[in-house]
Design brief:
Elements (H helix, E strand, L loop, with lengths): L4 H9 L8 E3 L4 E6 L2 E7 L3 H16 L15 H15 L9 H17 L9 H13 L4 H20 L5 H8 L22 H7 L5 H12 L1
Antiparallel strand pairs: 1-2, 2-3
């Protein structure tokens, strides 16, 4: 959409009073905030994003400094959402002693599955059926039921986070939030193997190597 000479002139004269061209650091996208709404424009600093910004301001001025209700960008892909969310998660769970957080390992496993099967798709096309498909793949791979539920919750968190930053529509997150966890006895996903008690034979062989106080504590616990 070409900006008229009149609008270009008004844009130039009142630039200081217009919504700014801003950078959303977690995603690297340019955005403009109008009436409390975040409108995403594409990669920050790119010609395309600046062109969209000018077109947006032109519409804003032409409509009396108002815009019609906007929706999250249809071209926001699951890959871009996943990349931004994982960056956020890595900051939230920082490494300790130069080792990645165990929680981040789970985040990467869950998110990598979404990207593998749906990375190129727009975020608003991710449905409960898509989430079920990924869960079925995890079941086929013999992952434990509790692990699958944990990864499923991470995917839901990713879309909830996307809603917060205007990358995902609330309808998408709401539909995904309705997907129930896998329940014991109603899925073929295996349960965790229960931790079995250490045999008395191993305990007896270990006692001589323990400090006296610790050895006495072990004996008391066995009697209890």
């Amino acid at each position: 959409m070409a900006i008229s000479i009149h609008l270009r002139k008004e844009f130039s004269m009142s630039k200081k009073n217009l919504p700014g061209y801003l950078k959303h650091k977690p995603t690297g996208q340019a955005y403009c905030k109008i009436d409390g709404k975040f409108i995403y424009l594409g990669k920050y600093g790119s010609k395309a994003s600046r062109s969209q910004y000018e077109e947006l301001i032109a519409k804003y001025l032409a409509n009396g400094k108002k815009l019609p209700p906007t929706k999250p960008q249809d071209d926001t892909t699951i890959l871009s959402l996943a990349s931004a969310f994982l960056e956020h998660a890595e900051k939230y769970y920082p490494p300790k002693n130069n080792r990645s957080s165990g929680e981040i390992w789970h985040y990467r496993k869950a998110i990598s599955a979404v990207v593998k099967y749906y990375g190129k798709n727009p975020v608003d096309e991710f449905t409960p059926l898509a989430l079920d498909f990924i869960r079925d793949k995890w079941v086929e791979a013999s992952h434990a039921r509790k692990t699958i539920n944990r990864w499923t919750q991470i995917i839901k968190k990713m879309f909830q986070w996307g809603v917060t930053y205007g990358l995902v529509s609330t309808d998408v997150h709401y539909r995904l939030s309705m997907v129930p966890n896998l329940k014991m006895g109603h899925t073929v996903a295996p349960e965790y193997n229960e931790v079995q008690p250490v045999s008395s034979e191993i305990v007896e062989k270990t006692l001589p190597f323990l400090p006296p106080v610790v050895a006495d504590m072990v004996r008391v616990q066995r009697l209890c």
